[in-house]
Design goal:
With 102 residues, the chain is an alpha+beta fold. 43% of the residues lie in helices and 11% in strands. The chain has two domains: 51 residues, no CATH class; 45 residues. The strands form two sheets. A three-stranded antiparallel sheet has the order 1-2-3, with helices on one face. It is elongated. It comes from Schizaphis graminum.
């Protein structure tokens, strides 16, 4: 059965290489087609990883220090925990590629 599995894996890899970025489930996991090794139980989580994390510069910059994050929720948590700024005090502050926005 290991040989069958390896043949199936090779076929998936060959197909992926000819088709661009596609997601093929393997044992109920979706592996990143960019070869970074990450895997997810849900397809949409894998696509989110591809779109915002895998080889992509972190888009959400902290307006108080030099840290940056792949997800806005991580930035918000960082600001509350590290800078001791309450969530309600953040208002609609968002900082993306262009830096801090007041």
């Amino acid at each position: 059965t290991d040989e069958v599995f390896m043949n199936a894996q090779e076929a998936v890899g060959a197909h992926r290489d000819t088709q661009g970025l596609i997601l093929m489930p393997t044992f109920d996991r979706f592996y990143c087609p960019r070869g970074c090794g990450r895997s997810y139980k849900r397809k949409d989580h894998c696509w989110r990883h591809i779109k915002y994390e895998c080889g992509v510069p972190r888009q959400f910059k902290c307006p108080y220090c030099s840290r940056s994050f792949a997800h806005n929720s991580a930035l918000k948590k960082h600001v509350v925990v590290v800078h001791k700024i309450l969530h309600k005090d953040l208002g609609n502050r968002r900082s993306r590629k262009s830096g801090p926005i007041a």
